[in-house]
Amino acid sequence: MKHDHHKSRFHDHQHAVEFDQRAAKSEIRVQLGEKLVEALNLSGAECVLDLATGTGRFAHPVSRHLESGRIVGLDEALAMLRVGQEQTEPIRSYFQAAGNAEQIPFKSDVFDRAFVCFSLHHFGAPLLVAKEILRVLKLGGIFAVVDPILKEARDTVDEALNERVNQVFRRTHGENFRFQTGTSIRDLLSEAGFRIARFDLPTFAFDQEGMEGIPTGRHWLEAAEGLADGPPELAERFGQNYLRWEKKGQTVRVFGSFPYALICGEKPG
Ligand SMILES: C[S@@+](CC[C@H](N)C(=O)[O-])C[C@H]1O[C@@H](n2cnc3c(N)ncnc32)[C@H](O)[C@@H]1O
């Protein structure tokens, strides 16, 4: 099955460089990387797939825990792979491959572990991707998803708000973009055939000037600013659920918290 797939901004070299620089400065991503390593429970001999590896920012911490094992980073954007190759500190035992997550170019039952970081929300057909991961994993293999998520909707205001946030992100990231919630990721993995092995939703609080270090931060601020002209209950709920902001001259103070998913599935044996 082929999905309509416009060329994302990740195919642009300059965008890839800027993405990588922002990613390198994010303490939230570093902490999620540590949680990912722990969740993968590595002995050091595993063959690991980093799907939608980008510039390899999550492959890096994982590779430090491999001895005889190796890590394969797959991505469809050559620009991201190239920036990954240009890292000043090369990633150990890391092999890059170009390809689409919806048709993983590897044989079945070959990987011990697989992970997808900060990318599930970009896939046009996430269920298809999850089924492909199930196919390439060995029996008992673990798949970890790390992704920013929306809070579960408790009422119609939350539902409208979550839809609005996705709309803002689609303007810059294309029609495929969709933030999930913790339960929608869990259900997706179950539907693909995984046994849910871990369900963590860590939240990171912040109170700072500007959005640096907060993954996808700039677009969250755009969403916040756009809501200021809409129905007041949406703007108020956005503040309660995600972030509040105050302009101070040229700078913006932002404070709030964002939830993330660290959800693992095991390929049943
Ligand atoms: C936000 S980046 C995350 C990269 C990396 N995992 C990280 O967290 O640093 C999203 C990546 O997903 C890749 N991507 C999106 N859709 C894809 C698909 N269908 N197949 C392969 N890669 C895809 C993009 O090219 C991009 O490199």
Task: Note the main attributes of this structure.
9 strands; binds S-adenosylmethionine; alpha/beta; 269 residues
Task: Please give a structural write-up.
This protein has a domain at 9-150 and 176-205 and 257-266: Vaccinia Virus protein VP39 (Rossmann fold), CATH 3.40.50.150. The chain has 9 helices and 9 strands. Strands 1, 2, 3, 4, 5, 6, 7, 8 and 9 form a 9-stranded mixed beta sheet that branches. The protein has 269 residues and is α/β, with parallel strands linked by helices. Residues 8, 10, 23, 52-55, 57-58, 75-77, 80, 100-102, 117-119, 122-123 line the site of S-adenosylmethionine (SAM). S-adenosylmethionine binds at residues 8, 10, 23, 52-55, 57-58, 75-77, 80, 100-102, 117-119, 122-123.
What is shown here, in short?
The protein has 269 residues and is α/β, with parallel strands linked by helices. The protein has a domain at 9-150 and 176-205 and 257-266: Rossmann fold (3-Layer(aba) Sandwich), CATH 3.40.50.150. It has nine helices and nine strands.
What hetero molecules are bound to the protein chains? Answer: S-adenosylmethionine
What structural category arises from helix and sheet content? alpha/beta
How far is the first residue's CA from the last residue's CA? 27 Å
What is the total tally of β strands? 9
Number of helices: 9
